[in-house]
Design brief:
By secondary structure, the protein is mainly beta. 9% of the residues lie in helices and 44% in strands.
């Protein structure tokens, strides 16, 4: 059965504070029609369904390739036995729940040992106090509904350092501030200039949840390493409880042009073309043919950029360690990337170029330790990936050694 929804949690664990926490999920609809999409939370691994709720609205309208964010709130009662529990977000089309239905990966949370409060006689004096508080609350609600001065996000700002550079590569650092005038759970994401043409798709960075226990300002930071000259921008976009964006933080990278060509001295001797000592297999030539190489440890639900050699959730990611359930896990190409299994023998660039690279996900069971994969990255480069270690039970880590050839 085809998959109609891609469900990605922002993190594979939820931190509880006084028994409460929240898990955010990004859901992308891959079908070919407009549908009403319903999200429901499922308690797994011993969790109780009464602890879990999907924040309203749990049903949202979605069009092909559109992405929506759903949040699951966790509230564990006092006296719950300590242990490790999990939840899962399932998503379905309201008018076709039997076929257009997908399950997300498990998200875990730890419950620490607590003691249930001892029983006591009912404090009747509280009745009067509660009545007074309810009267004040009702009055406050009436005032709130009639007032134009409701608690909102009051400011979102962003700065970049440096604003210009002349060496490649350069890492640009970003510092943003989000200000609220009331306690709130804020959901935000980073947006940047290289994602602009695909702003309606899945190429955008993952959403992040920021909790304000009181009015005030919190700082968020990010980095972006670039190796090509140009003018770029990055923006801080708050999605909820209401939408607000910072000004675009623009910056410029002007790589220095290479110096004049200096020929390599050659001995004063004529070398015939058939001389076996003339070869392209030298360390210098090999270095010129390699764009990026190294090792990466990709955690479940995270992605890797084989052009930059980084773990990322941004548009430039090439492969995604996808977990639909605890046992259904895949290496999935992202955006325009393509992939194929090459076998257990080491393969060169020409061998990768000859393979039939596809956009289909590869089950993790097909790639034990020692398996080679070939990837066509989003930047059009060929990359060879070797699985260094068989992936263990969920949540697992995909450990790879990669080599990305220059174009």
């Amino acid at each position: 059965m085809p998959n109609y929804y891609e469900i990605s949690p922002t993190d594979d664990t939820v931190s509880l504070r006084d028994g409460k926490g929240a898990a955010a999920f990004t859901v992308r609809y891959t079908g070919q029609r407009s549908v009403d999409t319903r999200a429901q939370v499922v308690a797994v691994e011993g969790a109780d369904a009464s602890w879990l709720t999907v924040e309203s609205p749990s049903t949202k309208r979605m069009t092909p390739n559109q992405t929506q964010t759903f949040q699951v709130n966790v509230e564990v009662p006092q006296g719950t036995p300590a242990g490790r529990y999990a939840l899962r977000l399932d998503v379905m089309s309201v008018d076709n729940t039997d076929e257009e239905y997908d399950q997300g990966p498990p998200v875990w949370f730890e419950v620490e040992e607590t003691e249930a409060p001892p029983p006591s006689s009912f404090p009747w004096w509280l009745v009067i106090l509660i009545a007074l508080l309810l009267a004040l609350l009702v009055g406050g609600i009436v005032w709130y509904l009639m007032s134009d001065d409701k608690p909102i996000i009051t400011d979102v700002s962003l700065s970049v350092t440096p604003t210009s550079a002349r060496s490649c590569p350069t890492t640009f650092s970003f510092s943003g501030e989000i200000t609220v005038d009331a306690p709130a759970t804020v959901i935000y994401r980073w947006e940047r200039s290289d994602e602009a043409p695909r702003r309606a798709g899945i190429g955008r960075s993952r959403t992040v949840t920021l909790t304000f226990d009181e009015p005030g300002t919190k700082t968020v930071t990010g980095e972006w390493q670039l190796n090509e000259a140009g003018t770029y921008w990055k923006q801080l976009h708050v999605l909820g409880p209401e939408a607000m964006s910072s000004e675009q933080a623009s910056f410029t990278l002007r790589c220095r042009a290479p110096g004049p060509h200096r020929p390599i001295p050659i001995p004063d001797r004529e070398i015939q073309p058939a001389d076996p000592r003339v070869t392209l297999d030298t360390p210098v030539i090999r270095a010129l043919l390699i764009h990026q190489q190294g090792t990466l440890a990709i955690r479940q639900t995270f992605s890797a950029d084989l052009d930059a050699g980084t773990i990322t959730s941004a548009r430039g990611a090439d492969i995604f360690f996808q977990a639909r359930t605890a046992t259904e896990r895949f290496i999935t190409p992202r955006s325009d990337a393509l992939i194929a299994v090459a076998g257990r023998q080491e393969i060169d660039r020409a061998g990768c170029a000859a393979l039939n690279l596809r956009s289909d996900p590869i089950p993790i069971q097909r790639v034990p330790a020692g398996t080679y994969l070939c990837v066509r990255t989003n930047d059009g480069r060929l990359s060879r990936v070797r699985v260094d270690q068989t992936v263990g039970p969920s949540p697992g880590v995909l450990r790879i050694t990669y080599l990305t050839w220059a174009n």
